[in-house]
Amino acid sequence: MSRPGSIPATPSSSTASPAPATPVQHLSSWSSSSPTRLQALYSDFSRQKSSNPASFQANVEWWRKSLDEVVRTGLQDAFSGKLGTGKSRLVLHANSSLLEQLKVPKAGKPLALGAILSDLRSSHSFYPLEEFLSLKYSLYSTSSLPVRVASYVVGKPLWWALEQMGITGEEGVLSSRAHHHKGTAWHGDYVIVSLVEAAAERVLEAQRDYSAAGLADTLYSVEGFRRAFGSLVLGEEAEGSAMGEQDAMDVVKFVTEDAPPEERVITPVDRGVLELKDAVANMHTQVDAVQTKIDQCTKRASEALAKDRKTHALSYIRSRKQLQEVLSKRLGSLATLESTLITVEAAAGDVEIMKSYESSTATLRAILSHPSLQRESVDKTLEALAEANADARELDNSIRIAGDAALGVEENVDEGEVEAEWAELVRQMSMDEKEGTEEKLGDEALKTPTGVPHEKSTGRGEEGKVAVPSI
């Protein structure tokens, strides 16, 4: 029997229906974890840091990725409890609203959140916002205290060594006691380093694609930077939106990777150029606004004339003429400002060119001042080179003469005599060839038909007979 005013039970409601999923449970970190795992993650596991360090670190790493997702997806915006700060995709607002946001059925609120944030802060995965903005050195500098201490304790468990040296532990300066998970000591804003790194990569890539042509293109005011790169930080779904005030809080200057230290600071010249750049941007806005008003007056005057309202039409025309005068002045001012900005950028470029000239001159002078390039050294080197070449020629002649002698070639041969002997040899060979031909023809004439040779008479009797051998 049901109580008055209660809803009668239905056959399908014999068991309690599951509680509706909270927004955080739709995130991948929660949806991929089992209820048992979530209960362990939501319990107070802070004591495991000493008793079971591996389990403690695994739980902290899960929360690091999960809080990263909470901030990156913008889920915390509705629960941050901060008004007027805009959307933030880089900073975690840790407070009681965050506890309510992270609450899930059957697991409740994360009891170890204070210890988690303390550990993430110690590992420099999360930075308190004020500490982050006041850093005097790079996040990746090895001059920080924990890194310098760690360099002396290689080979020992890091946390044990730091505790022994009083850096962490019960009384250490990085002790979790300072940000204990109980109470509200852990409340505050934390910069998530991984999100800052990812956003920085996207911003730098966009700036490289932009191919800055001048000094002004490397400088942004807070508002200008938020407008230019807001969608890269907030995500594509926030196209055209400005990032939160805490995501960009100072003048931004882009420098090259090999820029010297003096160029890695915001100089008075940078601020002056940035003011001029903002003035040009504001003047463009004013010109656009005045032109819009002129168009409106023109439209209204036409509408008034169409309705035969001469007085109204004349009023709109007078307003338009006044606005046209204002527009003319604004355009003149804009031209002056843009010309000034171009001149300033050109002067800044001239400074860079002169620095390059000075560097090149210094390099050339340094090379020319080398002892090897001094006049005496050059003359001495060239004389030595000439002597070496002469020695080489002499050695070559000696080798050639020795080779000729080995082959039986006489020295000091008269080329004229050689030519004469060659001509005589050719003449003699021609004569021998001619005589051989004549002798052959004569022998052919003395042959008998049977091939038996006749005796050739010489006119000297029997003694003068000469036997001609057969051929």
TrEMBL record:
<feature type="compositionally biased region" description="Basic and acidic residues">
    <location>
        <begin position="432"/>
        <end position="446"/>
    </location>
</feature>
<protein>
    <recommendedName>
        <fullName>Snf7-domain-containing protein</fullName>
    </recommendedName>
</protein>
<feature type="compositionally biased region" description="Low complexity">
    <location>
        <begin position="8"/>
        <end position="32"/>
    </location>
</feature>
<dbReference type="Pfam" id="PF03357">
    <property type="entry name" value="Snf7"/>
</dbReference>
<dbReference type="GO" id="GO:0006900">
    <property type="term" value="P:vesicle budding from membrane"/>
</dbReference>
<dbReference type="GO" id="GO:0009898">
    <property type="term" value="C:cytoplasmic side of plasma membrane"/>
</dbReference>
<feature type="compositionally biased region" description="Basic and acidic residues">
    <location>
        <begin position="453"/>
        <end position="465"/>
    </location>
</feature>
<dbReference type="GO" id="GO:0032511">
    <property type="term" value="P:late endosome to vacuole transport via multivesicular body sorting pathway"/>
</dbReference>
<dbReference type="InterPro" id="IPR005024">
    <property type="entry name" value="Snf7_fam"/>
</dbReference>
<dbReference type="GO" id="GO:0005771">
    <property type="term" value="C:multivesicular body"/>
</dbReference>
<dbReference type="GO" id="GO:0000815">
    <property type="term" value="C:ESCRT III complex"/>
</dbReference>
<feature type="region of interest" description="Disordered">
    <location>
        <begin position="1"/>
        <end position="32"/>
    </location>
</feature>
<feature type="region of interest" description="Disordered">
    <location>
        <begin position="432"/>
        <end position="471"/>
    </location>
</feature>
